[in-house]
Amino acid sequence: MTRVAVFGGSFNPVHYGHLLLADEILERLPVDRVLFVPAAAPPHKPNGQLAPAADRFEMVRLAIGDHPGFAVSDLELRRSGPSYTVDTLESLRTTGDELTLLLGSETFLDLLAWREPRRIAALARLAVVPRTGSAFDPAGAAAQKVLRGIGVPGGLVTVSDGPTPAAGVLVVHATSLPISASDLRRRFREGRSVAYRMPPAVVAHVRARGLYDTR
Known about the structure:
Strand order of the largest sheet: 3-2-1-4-5-7-6
Largest sheet: 7 strands, parallel
Structural class: alpha/beta
Oligomer: single chain
């Protein structure tokens, strides 16, 4: 059985912040692989600024290169309709892998608005990654409301240098680079530098395909 950390998102575009986070997850959690899952049609995001799904998949493929602990799945791209996480986890569980779902802290606090949040928590262990400098409070009312709603025993437990807690929703403090996909899209539109923010192969793909260029 392979232990897989599921890293979903629009990756519009993928950048070094995503890659550094994934690499640290491999060190901080007992997982064998980080699986990037680009969303075809994220139900909580407008499609207006999304690059084509095939391009976002290809950018992730180029970005992860030959990293032995990274992989990318086109599962959501092959499925019609909105990309619901619960459906993705259901499909991934058929392989027999042990799943951990990576969530940003803002996403975790919004989890009860997702489709079948309790089922999501049953299919995969949840690992919350607060953005550096965020005010995420595991003991706060908002976080505790989500815990009650998804029915996970053990509370929110912070991952330290010791053994990973056996129960609860994990809180993983990993490095968060101050890079945003929206800023990168704006830089491409304005013809500004994107150096040191994303892999050169991804930059080359964006420019070759004319992605994000509305001029």
